[in-house]
Specification:
Blueprint lengths: L2 H12 L5 H9 L6 H10 L4 H4 L6 H7 L4 H8 L3 H10 L6 H11 L3 H7 L3 H13 L3 H10 L4 H22 L6 H6 L3 H18 L7
Length: about 210
């Protein structure tokens, strides 16, 4: 189907006034359809919404991929619809331990996926920076609050990351040969370093990353 055919189908079958240009923008990742538009798009293309999401990362994307209405997911989590919706719209999950466990189960989230939908990837990465560059012991408790893994296991992971980083600092100056200057930067290099350290953390934990 050409983009024009898709746009026509959205109008004919679902009453949506979507231009061919908008469909092209969706295909190229330059724009995102609303929840209803995504559901309608899946209907026109004879597939499920999940098949149109290459890698769900937000609460909304995971919910839509599971074809759950806001009210249904809120009920399963023991939340009011408005309370859940506020968290979904803000991108910050604030449920309690029981609700968090239910969220991970209902949406099929890995520990990495849970941290991502909670909106805490950057916070975790900063804690891991401290763990590898200074004392990992000081970061164990805050990391354990963010990551749904057993504390003793996290201790082993942080200690191993710290040991690996310090050993590489001695032999090659850093994981990417730019030394402590890179670990302390806040620009593009700093963001790359944080992304790298987050990836190494999940790999050391033996957990799939947020993208699967």
């Amino acid at each position: 189907m050409l983009p024009g055919h898709v746009a026509y189908g959205l109008g004919a079958q679902y009453g949506l006034r979507v231009s061919t240009g908008t469909v092209i923008a969706w295909e190229r990742g330059l724009a995102s359809p609303t929840e209803y538009e995504l559901t309608a798009l899946a209907g026109v293309l004879w597939c499920s919404p999940a098949e149109l999401l290459t890698a769900a990362r937000t609460l909304r994307e995971h919910r839509v991929a599971r074809e759950l209405a806001v009210e249904e997911l809120a009920r399963l989590l023991g939340l009011t619809t408005s309370a859940y919706l506020r968290m979904e719209e803000s991108g910050r999950w604030r449920g309690n331990e029981r609700q968090s466990a239910a969220l991970a189960e209902v949406l099929g989230l890995t520990p990495a996926g849970f941290v991502t939908v909670s909106g805490r990837d950057e916070e975790l990465a900063e804690l891991l920076r401290g763990a590898v560059t200074t004392r990992w012991q000081a970061q164990l408790r805050p990391v354990a609050k963010l990551v749904p893994l057993e504390r003793g296991f996290l201790q082993d992971v942080l200690e191993q990351l710290h040991t690996d980083y310090q050993a590489l600092m001695v032999s090659t100056l850093s994981w990417s040969s730019t030394g402590t200057e890179r670990a302390g930067t806040t620009g593009d290099e700093g963001r790359v370093f944080l992304a790298e350290i987050l990836e190494r953390f999940w790999r050391a934990a033996g957990v799939p990353g947020p993208d699967g």
